[in-house]
Amino acid sequence: MLTAPDCLNYMQSGSELVKVRSNSRQYHRLFTIDKELTEIRWQPSSKKPHKARIPIDQIKEVRVGKNTDVLRNHDVAGSYADECAFSIIYGDNFETMDLIANSPDEAIIWVTGLTCLISGKIRGR
């Protein structure tokens, strides 16, 4: 059983996750949490570096499994296991970032770490 600090250490070292878009596009990106525990970042990205990030305080919810419109679309995410999928709901407009981990364990690490950060159980510096 991993503790929240174990999860955060893992997230800071980075994971290659699949970022799934509504247009059926899928991008392999390296996702990390910054050392201050204040934002999630990904690379490479065609966005400017300050846009390829989500501040932790903007995250409203972390959903486990295929529980957004994009991930429910079989054409988009049908080949991925439900246990590997999770979504980050963020911003004032409740935007979604849909992600697929390489394993159910990796998805649990990210969901656990993000949930602890957004609940305030662990504070960023």
UniProtKB/TrEMBL annotation:
GO terms for molecular function: phosphatidylinositol-4,5-bisphosphate phospholipase C activity. InterPro entries: PH-like_dom_sf, PH_domain, PI-PLC_fam. Residues 1-119 form the PH domain. It holds the Pfam family PH_12. GO terms for biological process: gamma-aminobutyric acid signaling pathway; phosphatidylinositol metabolic process; phosphatidylinositol-mediated signaling; regulation of synaptic transmission, GABAergic; release of sequestered calcium ion into cytosol. This is PH domain-containing protein.
